[in-house]
Design a protein that fits this description.
single chain; 1240 residues; alpha+beta; 11-stranded mixed β-sheet; 3-stranded antiparallel β-sheet; 37 helices; 20 strands
Amino acid sequence: MASGTGHNIRWLSAVSVWLFLAMIGVLVSAKVSLLWLLRLFKYEQIHPATWYLIVCIILVLPHLCNLFYIMWNTPFISSARKEELPRAPRLFMGLIGSIMEGMSIAIFAGEICLVLPEPIFLCLPAAAYTIPLIISTCKNLRATSKLKVKPAKTSCATIKQCLGIFFCSFNMWAPSAIAVIIYIWSPFNMSLQQCISLPIVLMVLSTVWTPKIQKLTVCSSRHSKRNLVASLSYTVIKICTIPATLVGLMAWRIKDFRENMGDYLITGLSGSGDYRIWLPVVITFMCGIVALLLTDAACKVSLTTPGVRLPALLTPIVTFFVTIILWGDVSTEAIWELSGRDFVTWSASALAICIWLVPFAIPGVDIIKAPTALLRPFAENFYHFSWSQMFLEQSLILNFNHKGIGSSSSGLDTEIQKSGSKKVFICTTMFRESKAEMSRYLLSLQKLLSSDKLIDIKVESHIFLDNAMDNDSLNTYACQLLTLLVDTFNVTLSSLVAYRTPYGCQILSHPNKNFPVYVHVKDGSKFKVKKRWSQVMYMNYILKYRCSFDVDTFEQQKNDEDKHLVDSNKNAAVRLIKKTSLSGQFFVQTEPNSPSKPEQIVVTTTEDTFDDTGSEGSSASGSDAYTVSRESNASCHTSEGTDSDDSDLFLFRTYPGRGKNTLSVPGTRGAKKQALVKNVLGADLNNIHDGMEKHNLVWTNRKTLYLPASDEIEQMNVENADTVFTLTSKPMDEPVYILATDADTEFSAKSVSTLVELCERDHSLGAACGRTIPIGRQRPMVWYQKFEYAKDFWLVKASQNIIGSVTCCPGCFSLYRARALADVLNTFQEPSNSAFDALVKDHGEDRWLCTLMMLRGWKLEYIDHCRNSTHCPETFMEFLGQRRRWVLSELSNMVLIFKNLRKLVRSNTAFSSVFILSLLQMFLWVLISPSTTLLVMFVACDAIFGLPLVWSIPISFIVFVAYCVLCCIGSPRIQKIATGAMLCLSVILMITVSVGFVYFMAMSIKEDVRDGYIEFRPYFLIPLLIGGVVYAALIHPGEWLNLIYGLMYAFLFPAMFIILPIYAVANIVDQSWGTRELPKKSEKPNKKNNNINSIEELVDDNGESDVTIIRPKNLQTMAETGSTELKEESIFWEKLQSTVLGTGVNQGKDKETLQRRLFVLRNRCVFAMVLLNTFWFSILTTIYVLIDTDVICYILAGIFSFSLLVQLVGMTSYRLDNALRRYVLRKLCSSQPTWIKARH
């Protein structure tokens, strides 16, 4: 392997060989199947009506696949997504071309191929390349004439072009010559009409399949973007034209058809049951779709020559030898239907062979070129998801566009962001995590330090500890975290930096010079508590303070990319922010426009060193980083809905080199670190002064450098200093991400880098998540969740990648693009003003955040080889409390999606009709799952044990209604008892039904075997549904063990489908979190030690030291440090406190009003749920009792199978595409341009 190229020769060779063998095998199999059918008809073993029926099926099926593909990717909502149609002439051209294509293929398959010798039938379709070859040759000739090269080279080029013209002209007249020869001299009975039609059909197909023509008719006029509505119209026309043409041919040729059309068609249909007929039809169709997928794979890895071109060249000759062997032509006098003395037909066959070879022999012209970028998606590579069975190779090659369809509009980018420019802020919210859970997270951070996976990514960690202060004292959990922090990172206590802040306390540790860890300890009396407000806190901090995102004007800036950095009508206020100690200071001012020169930003330097007050002083030397910022237009949303005018707060900056407020305490190791934490934070947390004057900078001895204001300047070097200037009138260009994790999540550097790389290669992604693995003690509820998580990630999230967008990126481990968060932050931080707001915003903040992103046009994606693990509930009641929030969040966000469906589909290109239907099915299933599950259980009891429905159905329905009422009026204790009883009854009933069903099915199969045949019964669909889940596990190697946990899932899932929806809806009023509401007994702080001044340790029941209660004293506030940057940060937090996160602002409706409205909403929802389940239960019972027992089985199977089928197809597609993508990125990424999807 040559150094520097990055090619893996062995990998390329292996893939090339496998692609070549697979493609030629598929193409030859398709050709042999067609010849099989042709011989059956020619030897009068197929009725003419059966033949035309077969031809119709073979020709229409590919277009039906294309129709399904379009419907899969198109949301059919009136005026939802307004895509520009091609202009009227282009649209008319496409409609006419579709009609002509359908008629031409039908005529060729129904009439012409029947009278063609087999060699000609195999080679003649290559004439479809003629028009595209002529266009390519003329283009090369025109390009050659413009070149200014030596005469000798010009002569050689001219000769090559002349040869190309000769070959193209040969392919123009050769089909006509073949038709004339066969018609006049050959023993094959070709009619005059067939002789005339043959060259016309080939030229029509060559014209309509020309890539240039296809692009004109498929893509919009302005942006060259594919229009699926136009493609849908063309496909429907072809589907209608082909059968109509075949019916016309039958009426023209067959007298019996004209006299009695119905009987003739019935005769043809009855003859299609022979396996010799339907088997080659199935093989032909399967080979066609596999050939299309292999062509796509070859194009994605840029191996079109071994994967497509060579197989297309060799297919006729390989088919020749295969048919000789299969049909024993060697032992007969005729080979391929040709007699050795039939020189006329052999001559026509020789012309056809030349037609086959010419497209591969024209110098300087490739019938299929290598793509310009690796991994370009199918929609960008191919015009249609279809093919032609009679012209298989030709339709595949001419359907491909090596430059990409609509690439100019989608913003093809083939370079990933340069090393070192990506930034990831790891933000974690904590509340009452145990010591083991905190340790898992800190150990994950420690692994990041020692890994080389993130060498090109700047990483910071921010831990937001919620409600962790009481009377200016750090509580047990804060002390526990600090103790673990010191132990895990093996840092000296003197290196910790602490400040008093408006929200409580900020502690900074530097385990690595490039990896700071911030601990933000929140005081519940100053800042709002709960997870959503902690998320709002770190989003504002990262986006508005640490990065250059002006959230309020972000959308305006996106739509006006050409806006000048400095307003021409105003003097831009530019400020200099000091980042660390000064070794040479720079100051910035602006000068107004003058008639003689454009407006300039003036950057001035000083050779003397100044302190923070503007007077002369000294400072340590070092590398300083600065940010030059315009006064931002950002503002905060107040509780009254108005915008604050303190727009100078959010002056954004790059990564700061923090000035250290170092506490000089000798470092020790071991258990003494716990005691010394108190010494490190030995100060009272007093209130921060409200008034804080801004630092006014002056400049002297200036050296002036003029920067044009209209330039988008990111970095510059100034003489005698190493400085970085960032103009932040528009968001930063370098990618910034926020990795949101839970406090008990364990992850690796590889998982982080995988998510970042995924987002870098698809700029339309607003968030991405990985495969979360639940862990816990070996208990039934943990086993249940292990399989449930696996099944949902295998099927639901993987399929959502293909059919639309992942609807929820779990908060335990998800990567968010900062630009996407900036789009939705103002909405996300709004308070709850209604009962529905409380459901959407406070029950599932992660799902609501994802819904907001989708509404703003961002796609969310899942990647299965990015692994992380988190603790899951271990008891049923803890699980029930968690799932109560999840179910309500899912339902409320579904309502929000359907309420804004038109807007969502208009703004988000990821939404498809199949995706919308799957969401609707999931939503309805949650609502009707109690009645459906109950009916299934008791129908099974009736079929297996003979339990009369007249007793079981009324009793089960009464139990259902009683449980609903009990959950509404009962106390938590009564609900707990009733729910436990329901769980036990459901599990016992499910185990009984499962054992009985297995025995019942085994006995039925045994009886059928005794009778000599196995009759299909409706309940056989149940093993098929289970088989789908088993298949999902099998294509996920390494996760097969989860199938064992599936047994526990099978026993518990009826209880979950019956209990969970009822319990969740009936407890809408409950606004508790459901988990970690109360600390464990061993974790409660010892209240009597809260005010002591000496070191005190809590001792658990085992006598082991746990945590130390600390009462900080004499810590400096950020404003008292003298650092300009810390002063600005303090102002930022004060502003955030006064507008968004303070306990007295941005409140929304009061708690009592929300509780009252939630109570009303609960009653309505429970009534609606009972009414809906009663109605559905009555319908299913009526069908089962009065109509047919089998019908109910098919209805229920259809409910489950629709979503399962969509998920299996989507999951398989995702797994194949993801495997190919991983290998290509690993082997070829460094050597060739790679497709990067831009956001529309």
